[in-house]
Automatic annotation (TrEMBL):
UniProt signal peptide: none
SMART domains (UniProt xref): CO_deh_flav_C
InterPro entries: CO_DH_flav_C, CO_DH_flav_C_dom_sf, Diverse_Substr_Oxidored, FAD-bd_PCMH, FAD-bd_PCMH-like_sf, FAD-bd_PCMH_sub1, FAD-bd_PCMH_sub2, Mopterin_DH_FAD-bd
Family matches, as PROSITE patterns: FAD_PCMH
Record-given protein name: Xanthine dehydrogenase family protein subunit M
Organism: Streptomyces lonegramiae
Length: 326
């Protein structure tokens, strides 16, 4: 670990000023400290924001949810408002990491976490995300766990967050505070696909601080849930996952929100699946036909071709679980 200075922000203004000067924000530290130990990250200054008043879960005026950036994963998962209005969020959180990590890690930190690609974390390997222009060892290396959607010649690393998949499906927004004031950005625009600049992972401006994630209100009843497929039952990242939310009224699907994890360089929204569902009546054949569109545009690598079918099967299964069958 390289030397660094440490400061604790007393309020959001102090935090933003420190961030504008190049400080890196830290709260739970469950990702950043690991990367510092491995010398992947080498920040000169850490800004501790753990004492800021960003730890509430509230219902918005229109009936959505606002989850403060410093709410821990375990707090959000256990919150009654989250569990009753958006089970897909609480389930995604409960299927993440270990209980100890969920007690420390925050919502803001979770969506900011960096990839678990082994080449990214190996400072001797070529990685454009860690060292721009050095190449991507994963493309020709062992790439079983890597992305099949949203990839580029420069990077094929997956985004590791589970709850980010739920937020992507629900079309959440990320609330930010920076030197120029506050702004709101759609979740789909917050996390960036690698393209030719994989080292730039979020659309944050210098000094900006995440203050909350807001999930919009949806018509009720809304059925939702999260399914995670992995090599072992716990403490493992997804090979594929599916976040599904359906509004079914009068026996017809009026609204469908679907996203996948473990397969994309960012949490992957599935508009083709959603479009196939809206206006239809739930049935086994509908779930299968919609899920067949889940891997549209996939570009599998040598060792992860299995993810195409696995993704389709995962989405179909979760549609069946959430929407029911006849």
């Amino acid at each position: 670990m390289y030397p660094f200075t440490y400061t604790k922000a007393a309020d959001t203004r102090q935090a933003v000023n420190a961030g504008r000067r190049g400080g890196r924000y830290i709260a739970g530290g469950t990702t950043l400290v690991d990367l510092m130990r491995e010398t992947v990250e080498r920040p000169e200054t850490l800004v501790d924001i753990s004492g800021l008043p960003l730890s509430e879960v509230t219902v918005t005026e229109r009936g959505g949810l606002r989850i403060g950036a410093l709410v821990t994963m375990s707090e959000a998962a256990a919150d009654r408002k989250v569990r009753t209005t958006f089970p897909v969020v609480s389930q995604a959180l409960e299927l993440s990491a270990s209980a100890q990590l969920r007690n420390m890690a925050t919502i803001g930190g979770n969506i900011m976490q960096r990839t678990r690609c082994t080449y990214f974390r190996d400072v001797t390997a070529a990685c454009n995300k860690r060292e721009p222009g050095s190449g991507c060892a994963a493309r020709e290396g062992f790439n079983r766990t890597h992305a099949i959607l949203g990839t580029s010649d420069a990077c094929v690393a997956t985004h590791p967050s589970d709850v980010a998949v739920a937020f992507a499906a629900l079309e959440a927004t990320v609330q930010l505070l920076g030197p120029d004031g506050g702004r709101s950005i759609p979740f789909a625009d917050f996390l960036l696909q690698p393209g030719g600049t994989p080292s730039r992972e979020q659309s944050l401006r210098k000094g900006e601080l995440i203050t909350a994630v807001e999930v919009p209100a949806y018509p009720r009843p809304l059925r939702s849930g999260y399914l995670k497929v992995r090599d072992r039952q716990s403490y493992e990242f997804a090979l594929t996952s599916a976040a599904v939310a359906l509004h079914i009224s009068g026996g017809v699907i009026r609204e469908a929100k679907v996203a996948a994890g473990g397969v994309g360089t960012v949490p992957w929204k599935l508009p083709a699946v959603e479009q196939h569902l809206v206006g239809e009546r739930p049935s086994k054949s509908l779930w299968a036909a919609a899920a067949a569109r889940a891997a549209d545009g996939a570009r599998p690598l040598e060792h992860n071709r299995f993810k195409v079918e696995l993704l389709q099967r995962t989405v179909e299964r979760q549609l069946r679980i959430v929407g029911g069958t006849k």
